[in-house]
Amino acid sequence: MWEDEMRLHFMAGVCALAFAVPGNPAFAADSVEVVHHLTVNTERAAIKEIADRFTAAGGVWVDNAVAGPPNSRRVYTTRMNAGQPPQAYLTVTNLDHYDFAAQGQLVNLDSVAQAENWAKVFPPEIMETIKAPDGHIYVAPLGLNVPGYVFYNKKIFDDLGIKEPVGFDDDFFAALDKVKAAGIIPLAYSGDPFHVRFPFEAIMMSLGGKDLWDNVWRQRSNAAIRSPEMRKVFETFERLRDYTDEGSSGRAWNLSANLVMSGKAAVQIMGDWAKGEYIAAGMVPGKTLGCFIPGTDDLIQIHGEVLVFPKQPGTTALTPAQAKLAAIATSADAQTAYNAQKRSFPSRLDANVAAMDPCLQLNIDAYRNPGHIVQNPRSLITQQMDGEYRDLVNEFMAEPEMTVDEVVDRFAEVLQAK
Fold it and tell me: In angstroms, how far is the first alpha carbon of the chain from the final one?
């Protein structure tokens, strides 16, 4: 059973942490220990698709699953700093991995990228994201999610005669007013510090478009941060406060999703990973579950999993087993299967997406049309900036007395506006 293999492989990973030294026979040459955070049912099924293909190709998959990205990052960082690196680490798109690349602790994947024609099967925005400042490729893209999706209970909307809004305009707030008047929670808001940024970023993309996004996150332009457009983003985000319930502060996103499933709330603004919870509860995208990318431009930001490959003791080159895993994980077949289980969508443009649900099809349509992709802020700003920005947005929503002037000033300070 896969569950039993996971337990055995996890123990192998623990043993590796304790005994990993140059020349240790615990790992055969074709073994790859993979540290990752994919522990819930759909995630485990997804990683199994890659593990099975690697095993079928003659590799030995050693699974080291650690619940939660912060916890898996902590294990990975500890191992790297102790000189006991795993052969592979699954992480999310951000700048963190380039710190180890700059220190010479990761192997580049240039040879795999060239052999597998990554420049042809991944869009330019993905290639930009996975390429380090030194021009080399250190990460292998797996699948993508879209933060800032709008999900809604179609029965509530239909019963109240509400049409699907386009973005965060007056029609959107009129719809929330109608829901509120009916005695239903309009917005199932998740006021936990990690996820509070996603509604904010959805509003920013919807109202400001690609130019504002790029000028704020990439350029960190003081003029853009203090512009009328950015002020409008904060003002619109602030308006959401009137449509939340008293239990929203600190509430996890999956509990907010439960409110929409049960009909106690109408709308949730969250990444499309929430869709897995809705489907598990019996809701059907396009039928009982409504979904849309806010705004007229259908912009999506890159947010997904990638694999990185640390240098191993005694060599500075990519090992054959690492190269094999990188090639398999980025193949069209593996990406189709992985993302079907995880309910995300493939990074590859040539993966088979015909059977994916209507919500995912919206993502795919945007992804495959030039000009609809923007970079994830976590790929453009430091981890410290991201944490301070997240805390600021959470504070702004939680404290009505904070003015837009105040939050704009502090936002500029966080991003060290130029």
Answer: 55
- Residue-wise pLDDT for 211-242, tens only, equals 999 999 999 999 999 999 999 999 999 999 99
Q: Checking DSSP bridges between strand 149-153 and strand 265-270, what pairing results, if any?
A: antiparallel
Alpha-carbon span 268 to 274, nearest angstrom: 9
In whole angstroms, give the CA distance from residue 36 to residue 178.
43
Q: CB of 367 within 8 A of CB of 144?
A: yes
Q: Is 207 helix (H, G, I), strand (E, B) or coil?
A: helix
For residue 28, count other CB atoms closer than 10 A to its CB.
Answer: 10
Chain centroid to CA 94:
10
Show the CA angle centred on residue 277, arms to residues 274 and 278, nearest 5°. 90
Q: For residues 356 and 292, give the distance between their C-alpha atoms in angstroms, rounded to a whole number.
A: 15
DSSP string, 247-312: GGBT--HHHHHHHHHHTSEEEEEE-GGGHHHHHHTT--BTTTEEEE-SSSS--EE-EEEEEE-BPP
Cα 173 to Cα 107: distance, rounded to the nearest angstrom: 50
User: Length of the chain in residues, anyone?
Assistant: 418
pTM for the structure as a whole: 0.81
Q: For 84-136, where are the alpha helices, taking DSSP H only?
A: 96-102, 110-115, 118-121, 124-130
Q: Which helix (H) or strand (E) holds 331?
A: none
Q: Please name the residue ranges forming H helices in 146-227.
A: 154-159, 170-181, 197-213, 222-225
Looking at the predicted structure, is the pLDDT value of residue 82 above 80? yes
Q: Is 298 in a helix, a strand, or coil?
A: coil
Radius of gyration of the chain (CA): 22
Question: Do 215 and 286 contact (CB within 8 A), yes or no?
Answer: no
DSSP, collapsed to helix, strand or coil, labels residue 40 as coil
Closest CA to 266 of 205, 336, 189, 321: 189
Contact 304, 92 (CB under 8 A): yes
Mean pLDDT throughout 188-215?
92
**DSSP for residue 373:** E
